[in-house]
Amino acid sequence: SQVSYPKDVLHVSERLVDWNLFIRQVSGKYLSIVSPETRWRDFLRGKYNGDLGVLNRAHGAAYKSFAEVPMPTKEVDYAEMLKNSRQIRWEFITRNYKMVIQYFLLHGRALYNTFVYIVLAILIALTVTPSAAYAMSRYKLPSTYKVLLFFLATMAFPPMVTTIPNFLLLKRLGLLNTFWALVLPTMTSGYFIFLLKGFFDSLPRELYEAAMIDGAGEWVMFWNITMTLSKPILAVIALGAFTAAYGNFMFAFIVNQDQRMWTLMVWLYQLQQFSHQSVTFAALIIAAIPTFLVFLFAQNIILRGIVVPTEK
Question: Model's pTM, two decimal places?
Fold first, then answer.
């Protein structure tokens, strides 16, 4: 604050051009340099009365002239940082998250595609899986356990084994780069059917007998009795469908190579290719928020799905 600096510094481009042309015509003996460095050294000359020895003893240095004295850039930056520490800290905390959000909003349709994909996956999982499990639970077919064994056998193979056959099938059907390419191969799960059938079997048979005596049809018994009493386990299935759809990266990238159909996880992988590691970590935290919120709001229903069958 003790080093004065001129206020009439030129910033307009036209005046800078005229000034540049003017000083080219002026002799060097009529010119003097005015800069932060020169003002700092002039300040030191005045403070120590031009005595270089006194300056060296005060600064613990061995300068040979005042022209060698550097500006206290580190001290100035440190003082500026202390003065604006809160703003600087907030900038470092939020900068990476702002970059990730701007990237997702400005590139492609990541949020829209992911939302549609998740909604379709949950709706289809809550439609196909209960229907199949209800049919095997209500009607004691001779091949029920063989079908369940076949469903459970599919769990022995990793999803990567079926990637190439699914891709070739979707290509022949002309479904690549569509939402159906994402939803149809994963519309149900053998484990979910097995889990839901076991829950349906635990429901009292007397409810269905009473409903049949009252004249209820199969659809009424399925929707008003079975589906109503199965909300906890259906919440578990919905959460599983949400997690599978939201975290799907490899298959979503293979069947939808058009950038307009990329989901959030594909764009997240693309972001990692050119961004700093700190940006990648910020993106992972943002990507984990929806899963955390879904589990946070659905945890009571999920826990009921675990406790209720045990109580029965």
Answer: 0.69
